[in-house]
Design goal:
Blueprint: E1 5-11, H1 15-26, E2 31-35, H2 42-47, H3 49-67, H4 83-108, E3 111-114, E4 117-121, E5 124-127, E6 130-139, E7 143-145, E8 158-159, H5 161-164, E9 173-177, H6 181-192, E10 196-200, H7 212-225, E11 228-230, E12 233-239, E13 245-251, E14 258-262, E15 264-267, E16 271-273, H8 280-283, E17 306-308, H9 319-333, E18 347-349, E19 354-359, H10 362-368, E20 372-378, H11 383-387, E21 394-400, E22 406-413, H12 416-428, H13 433-437, H14 448-457
Parallel strand pairs: 1-2, 1-6, 2-3, 6-17, 8-15, 9-10, 9-15, 10-11
Antiparallel strand pairs: 4-5, 5-6, 7-16, 12-13, 13-14, 18-19, 19-22, 20-21, 21-22
This protein binds flavin-adenine dinucleotide and nicotinamide-adenine-dinucleotide (NAD).
């Protein structure tokens, strides 16, 4: 094969693209991965999952030192914030992760082609002057921040998630537009560090798409921590004239306007597929009605030999979903028959306590007319949670009424993001609530709430 001929050219080195490239190389393919950012790892490693979790972890420690340790009999002196050091921690974590992908590319002999790619014809990807020949092309170009009409993001006073990960000082006040995942995670970071944060959400609830009970409980807990919520409210303007920003707020249903003055505004109203500059139309790659690349069940686009995965296509915009699709498409190209089970993809919101879910919500089951039973167990009744002083929240298991098969699990509580793994595995194996209830769970662990919730599905929890 000539130097510029590849079995596979992947466009984009986020979790979808880099994992796809590595898996294809493992399967013996000659692979190039084109990335226009200066570092590998995509949104997730550079400006998404990883830096946000580094700041969530660090800000949680700061908050705990100031507010949580005394209850354990640990006296600390004056707790002071060194924001520069906290940011340095975040940057170090990002650096280690993106360099890790570089190492993995070298190890697996994936060629990293630097620059912006466009599709230049069947089996051809152009990067600057260079044209790569490819037997197959995978588009993994991810997503970008959705703008909000009338609100000009300058990444200083009005920031996207990227700017919110890099503020040079703790603002006195902050408005977060959008009560979704990014909004709540970044609101948590800056609220813990001392900002007075208000979340403005268009709908009448936060975390739309998650189980209603979970979203209500999460709002209650975050409000108790000091975050203010303005639901059913839309932002219709932003004036950057003075020292801060004056937002114009309007009830979503219409009515009298009001003003909210803050130092910094975060716009977190969603993300949209990033497909600009790829020359998709010329290549015959169709988009769906939401501007995502349309694919069939095997990730094939409307153009033969061109596949797409991750945030650029339909489905939840999650790193692990992109990764699983990356593996699947590489295996399909190698003649295997992989499958991504979209019914068992966990989602986690890394607030404190965390929020985690897998499978159907109660609202979805009702809408589908599925008969189900609910088992719930609160962390207040769990010994380990009491020992940790972290008793907020519950585990809620939804199981099919006739077969007892687990259809969905929703958790608000300490380490919910880790607890959900057991349930994703259970769902992958088609487990019943009874299977979980009869599995021995170590004592004393937070996981015992999962067992108790499973017992509660059948009305026989022991500890409540
Ligand atoms: P991306 O990671 O967006 O990568 C696409 C890459 O393609 C980019 O590097 C881009 O530069 C490159 N690219 C685009 N066009 C071209 C081109 N023409 N030529 C060359 N390169 C190109 N998900 C989770 O699961 N857990 C989390 O905790 C989480 N936290 C998040 C926090 C924030 C603040 C944000 C913004 C997102 C978060 N996400 C999280 C979502 C997660 O980052 C995405 O779902 C994931 O990155 C999608 O992976 P991807 O490979 O599809 O695309
Ligand atoms: P989102 O879709 O989760 O939330 C956006 C919120 O903004 C919604 O609640 C929506 O109703 C609201 N909204 C929309 N327009 C509005 C308006 N004009 N005024 C007020 N509110 C408005 O989107 P996001 O929080 O921006 O996150 C983007 C993507 O990134 C998500 O799909 C998410 O999956 C991913 N992400 C995941 C994680 C994680 O897994 N922990 C973390 C961050 C981001």
């Amino acid at each position: 094969m000539a130097g510029d001929s590849f079995d596979l050219v992947v466009i984009g080195a986020g979790p979808g693209g880099y994992v796809c490239a590595i898996r294809a190389a493992q399967l013996g393919m000659k692979v190039a991965c084109v990335e226009k950012r200066a570092t590998l790892g995509g949104t997730c490693l550079n400006v998404g999952c990883i830096p946000s979790k580094a700041l969530l972890q660090a800000s949680e420690k700061f908050h705990e030192a100031g507010h949580g340790l005394a209850a354990f009999g640990v006296k600390v002196g004056k707790v002071e914030l060194d924001l520069a050091a906290m940011m340095a921690h975040k940057d170090k974590v990002v650096d280690a992760n993106v360099k890790g992908v570089e190492f993995l590319f070298r190890k697996n002999k994936v060629e990293w082609v630097k620059g912006a790619a466009r599709i230049a014809g069947p089996g051809k990807v152009a990067v600057g002057e260079r044209v790569l020949e490819a037997r197959a092309i995978v588009i993994a170009t991810g997503s970008e921040v959705s703008p909000l009409r009338g609100i000009d993001i300058d990444e200083k006073k009005i920031v996207s998630s990227t700017g919110a990960l890099e503020l040079g000082a703790v603002p006195k006040s902050m408005a977060v537009i959008g009560g979704g995942v990014i909004g709540l995670e970044m609101a948590s970071v800056w609220q813990r560090l001392g900002a007075k944060v208000a979340v403005v959400e268009f709908l009448d609830r936060i975390l739309p798409g998650m189980d209603g009970e979970v979203s209500k409980q999460t709002q209650r807990i975050l409000a108790r921590q000091g975050i203010e919520f303005r639901l059913s409210t839309k932002v219709t303007g932003a004036d950057k004239g003075g020292a801060g920003v004056a937002l114009t707020l309007e009830p979503a249903a219409g009515g009298d306007k009001s003003e909210l003055k803050v130092d910094v505004v975060l716009v977190a109203v969603g993300r949209r597929p990033h497909v600009e500059g790829l020359c998709l139309e010329e290549a015959g790659v169709a988009l769906d009605d939401k501007g995502r690349i349309a694919t069939d069940a095997h990730f094939q686009t409307s153009a033969k030999g061109i596949y797409a995965i991750g945030d650029a296509i339909a489905g939840p915009m999650l790193a692990h979903k992109a990764e699983d699709e990356g593996v699947a498409v590489a295996e399909i190209l190698a003649g295997q028959k992989p499958h991504v089970n979209y019914d068992a993809i966990p989602g986690v919101v890394y607030t404190w306590p965390e929020v985690a879910a897998v499978g159907a919500t109660e609202e979805q089951l009702k809408q589908a007319g599925t008969e189900y039973r609910v088992g719930k167990f609160p962390f207040t009744a769990n010994g380990r949670a009491r020992a940790m002083n972290m008793t907020d929240g519950f585990v809620k298991i939804l199981a099919d009424k006739a077969t007892d098969r687990v259809l969905g699990v929703h958790i608000v509580g300490p380490n919910a993001g880790d607890l959900i793994a057991e349930l994703a595995l259970a769902m992958e194996f088609g487990a019943s609530a009874e299977d979980i209830a009869r599995t021995c769970h170590a004592h004393p662990t937070l996981n015992e709430t999962v067992k108790e919730a499973a017992l509660a599905v059948d009305g026989r929890p022991i500890h409540i």
